[in-house]
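Why does residue order matter? Because the sequence determines the fold. Keep that principle in mind as you read this record.
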Amino acid sequence: MSCRNTVENVSLKKGGKDEVSVKELSQAQRDTSLKISAPFSLNNIKCNWKQIDSVSGATTIELRDYKTQRILLSYSDYFKSGNDFNSEDYFNVHFQDLNFDGLKDFLITSNGSTAMTDMVNIYLFNEKTKSFEFSEDLSDNAIEEIDKGNRILSTTSSTLDGETIKKHYFNKNGTIKYSEIITKSDVSENDSVAHYKNSYEKIVNGKVVMTKEYTTIE
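Structure:
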């Protein structure tokens, strides 16, 4: 876990990869290994990370304040991450500004048994507490688009007969202005034409303020 110097709010010493120390744990924990990164700057905090890998495939990661060793973020799961040790890839993929407040947030995809049960877990950076907080509203099966110009985060989730598309519109301070949710259900009677029923909701401050239904042919 590392970063490139050109990425906003994230910096690290020059070099293709982190300086990572790998230590074998105690005899009772021989099936795990510990990796600790060199310090780096994230959201103007000097940090380092610890990663514990087990032979079962599960991994625990901890992002810590380098000076105090206070945990800023902890995550443990069977997650997809083929670029943990590549400094450029890791920070560009996992640390992005997802609520458009100028600070880097954290995202990581956990493995499900199918694409429908995969989950992109999103943790927003709280500048007041200097920590990352899980966002249930923004986490979803997949991220469709991060529209920086219009401050829109689009996500999708799959169902047996269709999909749900969510668009979150943000204020400049990183709070949600409103969200749009479209649920598409396949109501086709034959295989020649895809016929969908669409249910639309507009949500403001957690309340549904508009609904409509319509059909589309694709």
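The chain has two domains: 1-139, 143-218.
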